[in-house]
Design a protein that fits this description.
Elements: E1 2-4, E2 7-9, H1 11-21, E3 51-56, H2 63-70, H3 73-76, E4 80-85, H4 89-98, E5 103-107, H5 109-116, E6 124-129, E7 135-140, H6 141-147, H7 169-177, E8 183-186, H8 192-203, E9 225-228, H9 234-239, E10 245-249, H10 252-259, E11 262-267, H11 268-271, E12 278-283, H12 284-289, H13 291-309, H14 316-323, H15 333-340, E13 343-347, E14 350-353, H16 370-382, H17 392-402, H18 405-417, H19 450-454, E15 466-468, E16 471-473
Helix pairs in contact: 1-14, 2-13, 5-17, 13-18, 14-15, 16-17
Protein name: ABC transporter substrate-binding protein
Subcellular location: Endomembrane system
Main location: membrane
Length: 475
């Protein structure tokens, strides 16, 4: 029996149910100057807009929306919700901005980027984080065969994990000597996947490339060139040889394993342990116009998150069956289960404990920490998406404009009051996690010191540097 995000995860029970049915993250970050904590209004009352359309991408981590719909949590809150899959993250973003979607399962970087005007300009907010972890990096069989002989092995002959990108460096150099680019895929320029893949590559001594002002390619001075591929298309793109690997959410790493076309080499919790992943995003003016509706949506999603993590993972088998339906993720239940039931399969015959691979409720997974938003902003600056230096206060103010713990707490505290969720599942915090370790390169992150953090990276823009088409310039 393993422990998943604070509860016992009984895989045998999960698997039996499937056959039958077909460390606490620090909750008190560095206090602000007043020593205060984020407060919340109580937004309770009749919903102003009952009929809603929410968007999602076909990924396992859209689960809170599917569960809120299928288990009746939206209906309990007086909401009639339609869930619509979107073709890609750009279409989803445009749908939220344009009003065709009332909210969506979003990349954490999307509302942040829209607010600062990177790619598009819109006032979006993230009042809830949907999950922690859930991604992995997969390499093609060809590349895996090139690095596998040099990897450290355990006593049983299997590779030791996590696997550093330093073992990929000779392969990239061989490609370069043969005049071939080494291409990898990620899902969107402001996706967690882009930043996690870049983080892993840079930690292993490989440059993933920089963005110049107005550039969305991000391949300037790159050892490894990254490009965008929608998540469900990743395995086919890998199989076609267009890319040599990718970073994506589940079940699209497991799909490569089951198709025997690729090998996951690292999960994102091994790059940054308990990293925030997707958010529930919507327009700021929607939340202002429909405050009770917004609170009702958040309450329904929080109830779904609790359902997903409760009772030793007892509900995960049912969640897998729901997600496997064509109107949701649409992958085989066996493929989804390979990463959602307390294990992760790296190769056929190499399935390992992965207790915290998907966390939806435990470890305060739903709380939208300012420090999480600031981490994304630091990576945008690190790679040139933010063209020039910003002072620390800019990072703080931007995070507070987008991440809205006040709205989260309004919903969560009402659920506590009603006895739906336990009081200790809601953090008392100023919105900052405090110092965070667990990064693959050993660098400590403190969201209250963004510029100091940026100065710690051997690869990445330094204070005063800018990027042009000719490369990096400045001190």
């Amino acid at each position: 029996m393993a422990i998943l995000g604070g509860f016992s995860f009984d895989r045998r029970g999960v698997l039996a149910a499937m056959l039958a049915s077909a460390a606490l993250v620090g909750c008190s970050g560095s206090p602000d100057e007043t020593g205060g904590t984020v407060a919340a209004a109580n937004l309770d009352g009749a919903v102003e807009k009952a009929n809603l359309t929410l968007g999602f991408i076909k990924l396992t981590d859209m689960a809170p929306l599917a569960i809120a719909k299928e288990k009746g949590f939206f209906a309990e809150e007086g909401l009639n919700v339609t869930l619509e899959p979107q073709a890609n993250w750009k279409v989803l973003l445009d749908g939220v901005i344009g009003g065709q979607l009332d909210g969506a399962h979003m990349l954490a970087g999307q509302p942040i980027a829209a607010t600062i005007g990177y790619g598009t300009k819109a006032d979006l907010i993230a009042p809830l984080s949907l999950d922690l972890n859930g991604n992995a990096i997969t390499l093609s069989n060809k590349v895996w065969d090139m690095i596998e002989p040099d990897l450290p092995k355990m006593a049983d002959g299997r590779p030791q994990h996590p696997i550093s990108a330093k073992y990929l460096k000779p392969v990239v150099e061989q490609f370069e000597s043969e005049g071939k680019p080494f291409n990898m895929g990620m899902v969107f320029p402001v996706s967690t996947h882009n930043y996690e893949l870049r983080y892993w590559l840079a930690a292993g001594g490989l440059k993933p490339g920089y963005y110049s002002d107005g550039d969305v390619q991000g391949v300037i001075d790159a050892d490894v060139k990254l490009s965008v591929t929608p998540p469900p298309q990743m395995p086919a793109t890998l199989e076609a040889g267009t890319i040599e690997g990718y970073c994506v959410g589940e079940p699209w790493n497991q799909a490569a394993v089951f198709k025997k076309i690729g090998v996951p080499v690292i999960t994102d919790d091994q790059i940054w342990n308990d990293n925030p992943e997707k958010v529930f995003g919507l327009r700021e003016d929607f939340a202002e116009k429909y405050p009770a509706t917004t609170a009702a949506m958040l309450r329904a999603i929080i109830k779904a998150q609790q359902w997903l993590d409760t009772d030793g993972g007892a509900n995960r088998a049912e969640a897998v069956e729901i997600l496997s339906r064509p109107n949701y993720v649409g992958a085989d239940a066996e493929v989804i289960a390979a990463s959602m039931t307390g294990v992760f399969t790296f190769e056929p015959g190499d399935t390992r404990e992965a207790e915290g691979f998907n966390i939806f409720f435990n470890k305060y997974a739903g709380y939208p920490y300012y420090s999480d938003a600031i981490w994304y902003l630091t990576q945008m600056r690190r790679w040139g998406q933010i063209a020039a230096d910003k002072d620390d206060n800019w990072y703080f103010d931007t995070a507070k404009a987008v991440y809205r713990p006040d709205l989260y707490l309004a919903a969560a505290n009402k659920l506590v009051e009603d006895g739906v969720i336990p009081a200790d599942s809601v953090p008392e915090t100023d919105g900052y996690r405090g110092e965070q370790m667990g990064f693959i390169d050993g660098i400590i992150y403190d969201g209250s010191k963004p510029n100091e953090y940026l100065g710690k990276f051997p690869i990445g823009l330094k204070q005063g540097q800018r990027v042009t088409a000719a490369g990096v310039s400045g001190s």
